[in-house]
Amino acid sequence: MKDVLVTCPPMLGQFDRFVDLAASKGLRLHRAQVTQTLSEDELCALLPGYDGWIIGDDPATRRVFEAGRGGRLQAAVKWGIGVDNVDFDACKDLGLPIINTPGMFGAEVADIAVAYVIGLARALFVIDRGVRAGGWPKPAGISLGGRCAGVVGMGDIGRNAITRLQALGLRVIAYDPGINGDGGIKGLERAAWPERLEECDFLVFTCALTPRNRHMLGAETLARCMPGVRVVNVARGPLIDEAALIAALQSGQVHSAALDVFEDEPLPADSPLRGFDNCIFGSHNGSNTVDAVIRASHQAIERLAGFLSEGAMGG
């Protein structure tokens, strides 16, 4: 049996469901004690004792992989789509097989994005909080039909979000330098970031984080937006400069924001964002449905088992 450390919170949430499948593949799964991520120091201490690693959003850095390789670590799989936290160059240098699990939950994360759009448009969170507090609030929202959403990213999540938003009657402008044309989506408009931001009632971030797009929504781009824009982020926190977003929320340039992800996670207790009642906050949980977690976890187990069996044969 190969020992595998699991540090991905959604997979840990259904951990017992995967133990037998993993065992049938020759893997013994081990739970990490983690809320969102482990630190580099914690990983460096743990990983040398395991043959495989199913990675969440942890800092999978060169230092961490070197520590693992100094012990038993033979292979790793990044659970999910995003890989901005993983040093693939280090893995290549160290001869460590690694892959992610793409295409597992674009629909699920898109559902959350659209739910946030509707929640911000109709102030559903204000109503919920008011009723719970004993009131009976009736805030006037905005209609979605005829409004415009700018969707940043045309990958699996972005494409699913675009078609859902169009079905609700929104006009969509998509931003993605890696994809030309409408991607086969009828009625889709395209622009190069940050063009046409002044047309967007909503901005929805669904793209991967890269060194080039960090803080792509900052003070300068926020100033170009339509006054009262509503911002949704289901991708990665550092796409948005939170200090600039806070200032824009204070001034009213941004009407409200729905953030499933943050620059620092979990959201620090002293974050000024917590003071805005017109915002919705998530816990980096957009992909976490029973069905999607099963799909992604099965894929991670299959791929890791393949790597480790190949390593055993090679040895």
3D structure, described in words:
It contains eleven helices and twelve strands. By secondary structure, it is an alpha/beta fold. It has two domains: 128 residues, NAD(P)-binding Rossmann-like Domain (Rossmann fold); 176 residues, 3-Layer(aba) Sandwich (Rossmann fold), CATH 3.40.50. The strands form two sheets. The chain has a seven-stranded parallel β-sheet with strand order 8-7-6-9-10-11-12. β3, α4 and β4 form a beta-alpha-beta unit. The two termini are 15 Å apart.
In DSSP terms (H or I, runs of 4 or more residues), the helix count works out at 11
Name the helicity range.
25-40%
Label the overall shape.
globular
**Name of the top-level CATH class of the largest domain:** Alpha Beta
Q: Uncertain regions: pLDDT < 50 for 5+ in a row?
A: none
What does the average pLDDT come to?
A: 96
CATH fold topology of the largest domain? Rossmann fold
Distance between the termini: 15 Å
Proportion in β-strands: 15-25%
Tell me the radius of gyration. 21 Å
CATH architecture of the largest domain: 3-Layer(aba) Sandwich
- H-E order: EHHEHEHEHEHHEHEEEHEHEEH
Largest sheet: 7 strands, parallel
The CATH homologous superfamily of the largest domain: NAD(P)-binding Rossmann-like Domain
The order of strands across the largest sheet is 8-7-6-9-10-11-12
Classify the secondary structure makeup into a structural class.
Answer: alpha/beta
Domain module tally: 2
Instruction: Give me the count of strands.
Output: 12
